[in-house]
## 1
Amino acid sequence: MNTTTGKPVHLAVYDTLADWETGHATAQLARTGHEIRTVGPSSTAPVRSIGGLRVQPDLALEDLRPEDSALLILPGADLWDTTDDLAPFARTARTFLDAGVPVAAICGATAGLAREGLLDDRDHTSAISFYLAATGYAGGGRYVEADAVTDGPLITAGPTEPVAFAREILRLLGVYEGEVLDAWYRLFHDSDPAAYGVLEKAGAL
């Protein structure tokens, strides 16, 4: 469970989800005692990731409430750009942010948030600026060229930055901080052997 709120972290799952984008985050959260619950689009019927993994959601989106969650994670998926099927997840993200509950979006999910107007007044990043510009959103001036960006309760990242995405989630939830967080990032992103000793000393392995 979340050591701060006692509430689970919710991971959105849907057909064509990019299964490599959230693995670092959910694995580290689970290893540090956070419950991970998966949320399907309209039921608990299985979905299939872009990598062919079959995922059985724990609950349906309509049953998810911000007050019951520590964080909503939205992975990328082909469906973000090819249909409006995932728009309800963006609307749920608005409900979460309005309630002060964090949302973390990566890859195509950032475009979904842009279409919902959630990036117009928040610093953010994505795959590349013109990818979001194609949505017609009004937040281009808040786009940041960075591996991942946190603005208040919102985290965004591009598809090539799953480790940086996880770093921001771990920071936001208070799992690691300071030199331990930096070492975790250096180990998994840069394969820095010196980082291992820092994590071992901190009991963070």
## 2
Amino acid sequence: MTATTGATQPAHPERPGRSDGVCTEFTVFTKIKPGHGDALREDLATLADAADDERVHAAVRQIGTLHDARHVIFDNDTRFMFASVFDGSWDAYIDDFAKTVVGARFDKVFSHSEGFPGIKDPGVKDWFVAHQAPAGVFVSAYPDLTVQQIYKDHRVDDAFQEVLDTPQFRAALDNPANAELVDTPAFQKLMEEASA
């Protein structure tokens, strides 16, 4: 039997992490460098304070695929966990962090982990893969909504709520010329959802 030739290889090797719809989980476990527990805790406190910083939220919006993230020190300051949920490609997700202010903060936090090469190092993806453990179970509350869709839904809801609050909208509802539209099941459902 002859081996088949010409088979295409994926651009990137298989990446760990479970998906639910468009959402993928990313969980990394590392060993904290001896004596670095307190310094890591301080850097995480600074990171938590920075979470209120507009630049961090702007960077998260720029990345545009991050649903959530959390950092945990455990096993008597010897181990560290970073876990997040994101949309899209694993490789693009890692690349995107290096391009924002979040990348520098990532570098600072992970610098307390043994062997971390730096977020901009060409070997960083291999390092993450070596330290990543897929979840046994992963379920998303909204598996079909990307972060960008959630942002859009929020913007549309804000705009619609503004319209609902205008006297012109109330007048349009009361106008007999609009009765046919107002009485449709779709419009009634829209109004019910808006008031929920």
